[in-house]
Design a protein that fits this description.
heterodimer, A: 221 residues, mainly alpha, three-stranded antiparallel β-sheet, two-stranded antiparallel ribbon, 7 strands, B: 63 residues, 2 helices, 0% strand, transmembrane (chain B), membrane (chain B), transmembrane helix (chain B)
Chain lengths: 221, 63
């Protein structure tokens, strides 16, 4: 019953999650791709448009310099860990970061360094020292608040895609219940309080979508 | 009272739309329910931010 273990029912709609790890991988590589693979075209399109639009707006606000991979003193770009959630769109930064790493000697960029692809997602030239004039401060000066906002936009896009990856792997998250609805739920034995109306038709209770019998999600919202 | 340009508030619009829709879609499969959840999420976030804004304005006025 391995195949049916991947079939769940949410909002009275049956979903075949198919190969979950593959769907999750596709969802990471391209927002919505995992859902297209599962035949969930509406949600896939929604994710693709929303997340990539957020990403592109952020990228443009920061003049194309907000996404880069760097872990140097004075320029530990932790933001990239969140930005990388958007998948393939952030991967060029890793190649650029590696190129910069190889061309950096004693913390200073080699004069012969030429970034690939016209500097697309390339890290700033070394050294980057906080409170000193360098390439990062020039980007801040040029793009102003747009640089900061662009960084946030791209980070949020990456974070949102992590939710999408989960959705592709295990189906929609549970909807919390509270207040009067919670009281109603307590009166209904077997209500797990989830937005899901039911789970697998063929068992597989240990799998992520496996949940207790629940009432229809329309009553939850 | 506000030291930044009000046009900066426009940054909020695409973010709230995107976050609300994705948030709703990760909790439902039905389009109507997704939109309903997205509306509630957008309303909640906006209300929360307005409360924070009001608190900051009051503090600004007091100091």
């Amino acid at each position: 019953m391995a195949a049916s273990a991947n079939v769940i029912e949410v909002d009275s709609e049956r979903i075949d999650l198919k190969n979950r790890p593959l769907a999750a991988l596709l969802a990471w590589l391209l927002p919505g791709a995992g859902h297209f693979y599962q035949g969930r075209y509406t949600k896939g399109s929604l994710y693709l448009v929303c997340i990539l639009t957020t990403w592109i707006i952020g990228f443009a606000l920061g003049g194309g310099h907000v996404v880069y991979a760097s872990w140097q003193p004075g320029d530990k770009r932790w933001h990239y860990f969140l930005q990388a959630g958007v998948g393939a769109a952030a991967l060029p930064a890793l190649l650029q970061g590696n190129q910069m790493r190889r061309m950096t000697v004693d913390g200073v960029t080699s004069p012969g360094y030429e970034p690939m692809w016209g500097g697309f997602m390339a890290p700033p030239n070394r050294p980057v020292i906080e409170d000193r004039t360098d390439e990062v401060s020039a980007w801040y000066a040029t793009y102003g608040a747009g640089y900061e906002m662009g960084t946030w936009y791209t980070m949020i896009a990456g974070l949102l895609n992590i939710l999408v990856i989960y959705d592709a792997y295990a189906g929609p998250l549970a909807v919390p219940i509270s207040g009067r609805k919670k009281k109603d739920a307590e009166e209904s034995p077997g209500n797990g309080g989830s937005g899901r109306s039911a789970s697998e038709s063929g068992g597989g209770g240990s799998d992520p979508p496996g949940e207790a019998e629940a009432v229809g999600s329309a009553a939850q919202t | 009272m506000i030291s930044i340009s009000p046009t900066y508030l426009m940054y909020y619009v695409p973010l709230i739309i995107s976050i609300s829709l994705v948030f709703g879609a990760t909790r439902h499969e039905n389009t109507q329910l997704i939109l309903k959840h997205a509306f509630y999420t957008a309303r909640w976030i906006t209300g929360f931010m307005l409360i924070i804004f009001a608190v900051l304005v009051v503090f600004n006025w007091l100091i």
